[in-house]
Write a structure and sequence with these properties.
The complex is a heterodimer.
Chain A (H helix, E strand, L loop, with lengths): L1 H35 L5 H7 L2 H34 E2 L3 H8 L7 H12 L7 H6 L8 H27 L2 H8 L4 H30 L2 H7 L9 H10 L3 H25 L6
Chain B lengths: L9 H10 L2 E2 L2 H31 L1 H10 L1 H34 L5 H13 L2 H12 L13 H11 L1 H14 L2 H9 L4 H29 L3 H4 L12 H10 L3 H32 L1
Classes of the chains: A mainly alpha, B mainly alpha.
Subunit structure (chain A): The complex is composed of two ATP-binding proteins (CysA), two transmembrane proteins (CysT and CysW) and a solute-binding protein (CysP).
Membrane topology (chain A): Multi-pass membrane protein
Protein name (chain A): Sulfate ABC transporter permease subunit CysW
């Protein structure tokens, strides 16, 4: 009897969860794909032959790659600092590093404009007279993208670093390896998977950033308009086909990133 | 651990500061210095600029801005809906984590992937996605576009992974022995859950709830196409901040932004306090 009621309860819970996820995520995401191909390949063809859209797609990829590179170097470096070294203010830094996850993208954009804006920003006018425009230009888009994806590599690498411990690193050093050799031959191979997950997640986040980029980019057609801004602009201009097709490309990359991470995670992790 | 893309690092993170480590060498000190300069230029100084700009108008100016009828309405809607969504997530997120950890069935891997999709999906695409099922062309025949329900739904979508991904690893590491012991001593299913399982999960639930609330309060992209941004009805705080920026009024933008940051901070601290209290009671 007890087994029977446990079984029934499991069935109900399983069904509730599956239904919830189906209506909240699966079905809506599927519909975007279907709407993108509503007229066959026409929508996709239209956007891929539109020079403004291809420029936006290229810009998005370039910005995302730069942002991921910066966040990977910074993230791995700071993770090693946090796990292996001791310094004053470590706990505060630890808490501050998670902050970008809980700040509104619009506030991120506002914060960057207030400091780097060309007219009234704290540093903006000086940088601009030195010939470096940040806001309403590509560097601003890069900064905004780096900001929003900042904690992702760190959150993946820190637990791995803690789990592998530092015995092997100490052994390498005692055998005469210098810091670079130790990092390349011992630390990096050990944290490889953590870094890869972090990179894939950062890539997904960077390709898809919208709010912060909207504030800092100026959204100039053919110059600082990114893929997510194209989706908004097309939809608001009643080009739903183009909006769905661009959204489909972005969704495809995002879902691919999630599947890659989920497939790569080692089995014993599960 | 889980197959989560959002594997939370809560418990190891807390250990990290306790364990100490090597003192800084010259090279590592330099590295830390460079990292701190970068972090300050990118995050700390800009966020400080928001606070300073908000303070520039004095307390009177700040108060006038945030109690402006339209602004106050956006703050009420944003915070209220975020609280509601966080409550739903506490129940549904824990339930989903439970099913993913304790149950085995075909298609579980697919559900795992579905949990992470809202995190990876660009927010503007998330809005479009929800619009295609719950908008004017809905195959279900429901149209919630431009209503407050749309705000609720958008928040629910973008915050889906947080509690699931913080609770899942804790649940997976929970020993079944204490549950069995409780059951063998005659505790009902519900009592076992409330007295044995829930206290161990509470810190994780609180951490996930804090992330979920902060994320909802700041949400922007998924609402643009979905909620219509009608003043006094479906306009959220982020949209209000953006229109202040676009109207070249950074002072009011900063004032509202500070309120958002403060509310997020308050909720994060409050949830931390609650979690500690529950652990102490055991």
């Amino acid at each position: 009897m007890a087994d029977h009621s446990t079984f029934a309860r499991r069935q109900v819970l399983r069904f509730v969860v599956a239904a919830y996820l189906f209506f909240l995520v699966a079905w809506p995401v599927y519909l975007v794909g279907r709407n993108a191909f509503a007229g066959g390949l026409g929508n996709l063809d239209d956007i891929l032959t539109d020079p403004d859209v291809t420029h936006a797609l290229r810009l998005t990829v370039v910005v995302a790659v730069i942002a991921v590179l910066i966040n990977t170097v910074f993230g791995v470096g700071i993770s090693i600092m946090l796990v292996r070294y001791d310094f004053p203010g470590k706990r505060a830094l630890n808490a501050l590093l998670d902050m970008p996850l809980s700040v509104s993208p619009i506030v991120v954009g506002l914060a960057l404009v207030l400091v780097y804006g060309g007219r009234h920003g704290w540093f903006g006018p000086a940088l601009e007279s030195a010939g470096l425009q940040i806001i309403f230009a590509v560097p601003g888009i890069v900064l905004a993208t780096v900001f929003v994806a900042l904690p992702l590599v760190i959150r993946e690498v820190v637990p791995v670093l803690e789990e592998v411990g530092d015995e092997q690193e100490q052994a390498a050093r005692s055998l005469g390896a210098d810091a670079v050799q130790t990092f390349r031959r011992i630390t990096l191979p050990a944290i490889r998977w953590g870094v890869i997950y972090g990179v894939v997640l950062s890539l997904a986040r960077s390709l898809g950033e919208f709010g912060a980029v909207k504030v800092v980019s100026g959204n100039v057609l053919g110059e600082t308009r990114t893929a997510t801004l194209v989706v908004e602009e097309k939809y608001l201009n009643f080009d739903k086909g183009g909006a769905y097709a661009t959204a489909f490309l972005l969704a495809l990359v995002a879902v691919a990133c999630v599947i890659v991470v989920s497939a790569l995670r080692p089995k014993e992790d599960r | 651990m889980t197959s989560a893309a959002l594997a939370p690092s809560r418990s190891p993170r807390n250990r990290r500061s306790a364990r100490g480590g090597l003192p800084l060498t010259r090279v590592s000190g330099l590295g830390l210095g460079v990292a701190m300069v970068w972090f300050s230029l990118l995050v700390l100084i800009p966020l400080a600029a928001v606070a300073v700009t908000a303070a520039q108008g004095g307390w009177g100016g700040f108060w006038r801005t945030v109690t402006n009828e339209q602004t106050a309405a956006t703050l009420r809607l944003t915070v209220g809906t975020a609280l509601l969504v966080t409550l739903v997530n506490i129940v549904m997120g824990t339930l989903i984590a439970w099913v993913l950890v304790r149950d085995r069935f075909i298609g579980k891997r697919a559900l795992e992937v579905l949990i992470d999709v809202p995190f990876a999906l660009p927010t503007i695409v998330a809005g479009l996605v929800l619009l295609s099922l719950y908008g004017p062309d809905s195959p279900l025949g429901v149209n919630i576009a431009n209503t407050r329900t749309a705000v609720f739904l958008a928040f629910l979508f973008v915050t889906l992974p947080f509690i699931v991904r913080t609770v899942q690893p804790v649940l997976a590491e929970l020993e079944p022995e204490s549950e069995e012991a409780a059951a063998s001593l005659g505790a009902s299913r519900f009592t076992t859950f409330r007295r044995i399982i829930l206290p161990s999960l509470t810190p994780a639930i609180a951490a996930g709830a804090a992330l979920s609330f902060a994320r909802a309060v700041g949400e922007y992209g998924s609402l643009i196409l979905l909620s219509g941004n009608l003043p006094m009805r479906t306009e959220v705080a982020s949209v209000r901040i953006l229109s202040s920026i676009e109207n070249d009024n950074p002072d009011s933008a900063a004032a509202v932004a500070v309120v958002l940051l403060a509310v997020s901070l308050a909720v994060i601290v409050a949830l931390d306090v609650i979690a500690r209290r529950v652990i102490r009671r055991g």
